[in-house]
Amino acid sequence: MHLMRPIRAAGFCLLAALALSACVPGNVQRTPEETAAAQSANALAQRGQFDQAAQAYLALAAQSPGRADEYRLLAAEAWRQDGHIAQAAPTMAAINRRRLRGDEPFRLDLLQAELALERNDAATALQITLHPSMGAPDAYLTRLLELRARAMAASGDRWGSARTRVGMDTRLTGLDQSQNRQQILDLLTQLGVGPLQRRASAMQPGSRMLPWVNEALSQLGVAVARPQPTLQQPVGTLLPGADANVREGYKVPAHLALLLPANGNYAAASSAIRQGFFAAYLDAARNHAPRPSVRVYDSLGSPDGAVKAYRQAVSDGAQLVVGPLTRTEVAAVFAQSPLPVPLLALNHPDDKQLPAGDVSEFGLLPETEGAQAADHMVERGIHHAYVLTSDDDFAQRAASAFKAEMESHGGDVSGRTILPNGSVTYTDAIASLKIPGAGTPATPVANPATTDDTTITTVPAPVSDTGIFISMRPAQARLLVPQLKIANVTLPIFATSHVYAGVDDTSANGDLDGVEFCDAPWLFDAQSGLPRHDDVANLLPTARGGAARLFAFGMDAWNLVPYLDWLRDHPGSYLPGASGQLTADQFGRVRRVLIWARFQGGLARPLGGSLQMDEVPVTVPPVGDTPAPTTSTSAPASQPVNY
Question: What residue ranges are annotated as transmembrane (predicted)?
Fold first, then answer.
């Protein structure tokens, strides 16, 4: 098992200060000489000279028989703080427990447990840390939990150890939290896929361990269900008696940095995000709310460039950093933990690191759309689905999430096929699925391996509660949907946002009539309080077409800034954003709840109509602040970008 440094919770200097401020037995005060010697020993510890501090405390123990055990305890704690708990063993053995007062017996027990672990005596350490009398004062609870977790792991109880560390999570920050989270995942992944899946299936939705089990399964390569978050209370409630610009949870730093690549493969996506960010930033002036100064840094689109840009931003006085953009960049910045300045990353790391401390993640994940498509179909009474996707990465990720979420509701994927890009005829692929109504039903085929990149046929499900899920770009969908109709397939079709090019084109989109898809509400003016999409698109090219989703993403990158802390500290709170309703999970990941739209007469319109109630005047950034988008052949802003 990967070992990590012990968490130094309840620091030694605090312990020494508490001990030295206490009265001695019988309310007899220390002599001036003793007080001076004790303060000198404490000063040595504060400078990190723990061995010298321990020797000084032992000298005090020899000179002050009435307080000898108190000073021996402080000496042992100094050695422990120095990482030499074994050196403290003889001193600990000389302590008379009955003479200890206040929290001192508890502190001695913690030392005994840590010494037992040092000697590979997990049974003794576990007995001490689980003893009913170990009612931990709050200042020492984190250390007790860590010792208990280490003892459980050493005893072979990985689940118990992980569960104990989960109980520590919210008590930690920075590097301690980051290492503790990694230890949790290390312990859980060692249990293996089967045991984790069995535990997950037996848990209630609100179980504290379920998100961690799902995270471990994801790290083992298993697609897990991602149900929509519960949205309870929007952020920004106007405080009673406050001015119009004082809203609950609103808090901004004085200086903010935005890290985006200025050139290369991601320049087009970066330009749309940057212009969306500043459009929302300038629009915030309507409420006269306080705003930070913003400085933009070029992250170069590379790990080294992102780390350098982050460090430069910190050096320049940034109090919050937004970005970087690509998965490799985010992973590189995360690896610098602990980060000296809070971060809102605009993607999720490719190495699946968990954010820790003041780090948040926000990204446009295809998994989100796949899972919400499954939820939407189940709400419509559809529990069986045929899945047809392109061979793009985004489509495969969406399909895997769709399958996991559908199965979590008791449904299934009745068949799945991948349509290669460049093909124009899908007759054979459609026929191979044996969709009811399109031919003779297939005989049962025992092949549950629905994650293979091959066509899979199973027992056809009843048509009444069956649908089709697709994930592909518009051109491919316009070829597929008419061929499904020709094949006499009349099942309802649901899709990810990739099916919509972001513009009304009745002649091209007429072939998609009836298809429902999830998307960002701002594209349809389906979220109140935001500038109208068409008004902004008439002024800025990056707000048009498929790039509009990245523009909306940039808008929300700014909109999240004042409420990051509030979202993290208030589960169930959400921000009505341009790219969706935004809420934060326990890991600091911002999750989106999308809206649903349908093609009718070649036009894409939100289901249930527009939710826009207030028309907001449009404010756009000056040309000098947001340069016109550059083109990129590898990642054009008008196409899905898997950055």
Answer: none
Written as one string, the DSSP assignment of 229-255 is: PPP-EES-PBPTT--TT-BTT----SE
Q: pLDDT-derived band of residue 227, with 50, 70 and 90 as boundaries? A: confident
- Within a 10 A sphere around the Cβ of 636, how many other Cβ atoms? 16
Residue 338 tokens, joined: 């602990």
pLDDT in tens, 536-570: 999 999 999 989 999 999 999 999 999 999 998 89
Distance CA 630, CA 643 (A): 16
Distance CA 4, CA 9 (A): 14
Q: Quick count: other Cβ atoms within 10 Å of Cβ 208?
A: 12
DSSP conformational letter for 313: H
Measured distance CA(356)–CA(342) in Å, rounded: 10
Residues in the chain: 643
Q: Measure Cα distances from 421 to 168, 176, 430, 499 in Å.
A: 48, 47, 15, 14
Cα 536 to Cα 33: distance, rounded to the nearest angstrom? 76
Neighbouring residues of 249: CB distance < 8 A, sequence distance ≥ 6? 235, 236, 237, 562, 563, 565, 566, 567, 570, 573
pLDDT band at 609 (very low <50, low <70, confident <90, very high): very low
Answer for the pair 53, 41: CB distance below 8 angstroms, yes or no: yes
Element (H, E) at 493: strand 493-495
Q: Which amino acid, 603?
A: L
Of 557, 529, 578, which Cα lies nearest the Cα of 360? 557
Gap between the Cα atoms of 108 and 533, Å rounded: 65
Q: 3-state secondary structure string, 282-336?
A: HHHHHHCCCCCEEEEEECCCCHHHHHHHHHHHHHCCCCEEECCCCHHHHHHHHCC
| Cis, peptide link before residue 324, omega less than 30° from 0 | yes
Structure tokens at 290: 């306080």
Q: Which residues, at least 6 apart from 190, have a Cβ–Cβ distance to it below 8 Å? A: 1, 158
Range scoring the smallest mean pLDDT among 67-76, 321-330, 452-461, 555-564: 452-461
Task: Find, among 512, 500, 446, 449, the residue nearest to 474 by Cα.
Answer: 500
Query: For residue 589, what are its two tokens?
Result: 């990941």
Residue type, 560: L
Please state, in angstroms and rounded to a whole number, the distance separating the CA atoms of residues 126 and 369. Answer: 45
Provide the 8-state DSSP code for 365: -
CA of residue 515 relative to chain centroid, distance: 31
Q: For residues 478-496, give the mean pLDDT.
A: 96
Q: Is 44 left (phi over 0), alpha (psi -120 to 50) or beta?
A: alpha
The residues facing 321 across adjacent strands are 257, 343
Strands (E), 266-420: 293-298, 320-322, 343-345, 359-362, 384-390, 412-419
**Per 3-state DSSP, what percentage of the chain is helix, strand, and coil (rounded to 5)?**
45, 15, 40
**Mean pLDDT confidence for 44-57:** 93
Question: 10 is written with which tokens?
Answer: 């309840």
Per-residue pLDDT, 630: 33
Mean pLDDT in residue range 456-483 = 82
The predicted pLDDT at position 438 comes to: 75
Model confidence at 434: pLDDT above 80: yes
Q: Within a 10 A sphere around the Cβ of 423, how many other Cβ atoms?
A: 14
Q: Which two tokens stand for residue 542?
A: 């990056």
Whole-number pLDDT of residue 443: 43
**How is residue 80 written in tokens?**
């422990």
- Is 584 within 8 Å of 567 (Cβ atoms)? yes
